[in-house]
Amino acid sequence: MPSRMIDGYDLNYAESGQGAPLVLVHGTLGDQRYWAPQMGPLGAHYHVMALSMRHCWPGRWEDGGDFTIDRHVADLAGFIRALDAGPVRLIGHSRGGHIAFRLAERHPDLLRALVLAEPGGELDESLGGKPAGSGRQAGAFAEAAALVAAGDIEGGLRRVAEHTGGPGAWERRSEARKQIGRDNVRTLLGQIHERRAPYSRAAAEAIRTPTLLVVGEKTLPNFVANADALERHIAGAERVGIPDAAHPMSDENPGAFNAAVLAFLERH
């Protein structure tokens, strides 16, 4: 498994294909394996690299480890610079979409095109959200982490799955996706301290990278609200809906997801 040393940490990744670099960033409880349905189809056009973020499988969570948004944004920036291949195309899903958004905000020189697949997080009041600290997400993840800390692994995983996918979401997942969650479950103990800032209008308006927002047509309202707000304030943002799919749209309808992403990337 290839890796690159970034700020003292071996950042592992899967890769496929040749050509211009395309970097993929997974979400909560994920790792590079989440992107398995994309590796072949996208690798036919690009040099695809799917990262496992710091402390995610095949790495492991260590108590006291650094699992903040800022740390992961810095890792992503360091990885892209280490490629020494110029600006890259970047896809982020859920929490990975938030990381990708922050990279575009802080390091626009590193990006040629940006795909945000239901970026996770909250909206601040400038985007019609609630006052800081009153969002649903932090509470759901804290509940899940408490279950994991108490030894109820499946209960914690079910809580996160239902927060992102509604009732019964955990039971509907394939065994392969459930195992990815189990392999990364202790990262929840770090994620509750990740200090994820809400999206703001100013931050969205600062994005100048060509951007595609991808939303599953069966997804929950909070992800739709994020996409609506970012679409309004990221200049020139495009948007596509993925039929017959909810939050994990790249897994539930990979054909439609891959086609939409490729069409956008080939224009940028």
Automatic annotation (TrEMBL):
Keyword set includes Hydrolase: yes
Domain AB hydrolase-1 as annotated: residue spans: 21-254
Gene3D superfamilies: alpha/beta hydrolase
GO molecular function list: hydrolase activity
Pfam families documented for this protein: Abhydrolase_1
UniProt keyword terms in alphabetical order: Hydrolase
Record's protein name: Alpha/beta hydrolase
